[in-house]
From TrEMBL:
The chain crosses the membrane at residues 5-24, 36-54, 61-79, 85-108. This is Cell wall-active antibiotics response protein LiaF. InterPro entries: Cell_wall_LiaF (IPR016975), LiaF-like_C (IPR024425), LiaF_C (IPR047793), LiaF_TM (IPR054331). Residues 10-113 form the LiaF transmembrane domain. Residues 137-248 form the Cell wall-active antibiotics response LiaF-like C-terminal domain. It comes from Ornithinibacillus xuwenensis. Keywords: Membrane, Transmembrane, Transmembrane helix. The gene is liaF.
Amino acid sequence: MKNGFFRYLIAAALIGFGVVLVLENIGVMDFNSRNAWSYIYPSLFALVGIKWVVDRVRHRGGSYFWGSFFFIFGALLLLDRFEVISFTFNDVFKLWPLLIVYFGFMFIGKSTRPKVIIESSSEKNDKENHNSSFFTVGNHEFNQPNWKVEPTTIKTLAGDFYYDFSKAYIPEKEIPITISALAGDVHILIPENLEFQVNASVKAGDIDIVGQTVDGINRSLKYVSTNYDNATRKLDLTLKLKAGSIRVDSV
């Protein structure tokens, strides 16, 4: 593991120990080494879970699935310690229905790009090759320095999509990009000097395109930048979600 993760665990242990001391001082609990550990390790689970979720939101690794699982597990153990509910470490197996809940929203695997089916296909009326992934589940992140933008069609069951075009190499042509998913979040960053148009739609959710917003049921939004028609280098974005959020920001 990275050294940063160990530093985080040490910091979390200190935080948990400090919380226990505060609770002891205000009379919520009696402090001894055995009681302290019974409060500290659930706190560690909860804090690590929060870190993984925050890292995932900030696109720095992490995992929604495991982060939320560890947070819920730690929180339930703490509620047991405060005698709100009855829940022990061995009751972890009672949480298996969470798998159904997670898959109901979206199944998100590890923070690295998942294994997907990638095929090269050509449309009948288009000589450009399109990268296509059909009916996969997982996250799609394009934020590495100088990554190459190509015509792309992505169709997935569920997942998150993060595109940072300010870091990309973009050829001098019109580049179509289509994203279609049953559930997920789409976040796209576009530099100010790049012309683009967006056709976005959601069955249930919200859309925010450079400050223009809609939300609710069966919503759609179209946007065309000022000099799109005359530009040689430009993006044509088609974004379709059954449920989720679409956000396009200019940076």
